[in-house]
Amino acid sequence: MSAADTTTAKVPPTRPSTVPGAGGGTGGAGRPAVPRRPGGGAALPWTLLAPCLLVLLLVLGYPLARLVALSFQKFGQSQLWGFQEPESVGFANFTKILGDGEFWAVVVRTVVFAGGAVILTMVLGMLVALLLQRVSGWVKTLVNIALVASWGMPIIVATAIFKWLFDTDYGVLNWLLSRLPGVDMIGHNWFASGPQGLAVIMLLVVWGAVPFVVITLSAGLTQVPKELEEAARLDGAGSWGVFRYVTLPVLKPIIVMLTTLSVIWDMGVFPQVFVMRNGHPEAEFQLLTTYSYDKAFVVNDYGGGSAIALVTVVLLLGVVAVYMRQMLKIGEVE
Question: 208 or 80: which carries more pLDDT confidence?
Fold first, then answer.
């Protein structure tokens, strides 16, 4: 074998490029060829979403369109039974309710009620979720079982339990409070005034909403990096500092989502108020949902009730817009 044979290396042949205008399997100036994605391109996501969108259109589209139509009509009992044709009144229903002081009192009461319920729900949910990270496994299992049981309890059953707890004559809470020195709550009526009664209903709403918040936040807490918490403690941060600068930023998307959902749910509270007041909520117990119901089905002013319901929908859309803005901001930061 000659010296030339031992020093000359054989170079394997290069593969032909599959991309037009590219050499050696790279595109352009040394860029790797990007494989094409199989499927229908931009139309594929819409095709997959089509069944869900169709169901939403059938379930929500027609009722919403009917609600909008009724809000611009004079529609009462005569129109309901077909004795008269619905009469278009333009914005008269909206002008009437927006100029009514009682309506604005109901709006303020609803906002205060929903705000208090949301704050209480989020604070209690966060505290319970944090406590569950510091207990043993069997305690966590028992608490989760209790949370799921309370979450799955029907609203009517939960309302009946709260009515018994806060009953004037046989209420357990009055009996327990009367055991305290100097406290006499026997025969106390919690629903004698609107603020006290709404506070009881708020506790009922919070009791049913906390389990979902706790379970969701507990899942989010498992995604908080332990090494970041340890690094913060090594830098001298206390428990509050770790929670504020490490835990909260990680949980922010979940907190924003839970807060938005809680606002929507709590502004739409109906069965708790309706059942707790035996189907006839007094004026100081009226929220937007029950107020709209009374206008439509008690006074038989379906146009006015629809206008109130539509205003409620617009308020909730404002909450959704704030939620979307916050989520887009979070996405830009990430």
Answer: 208
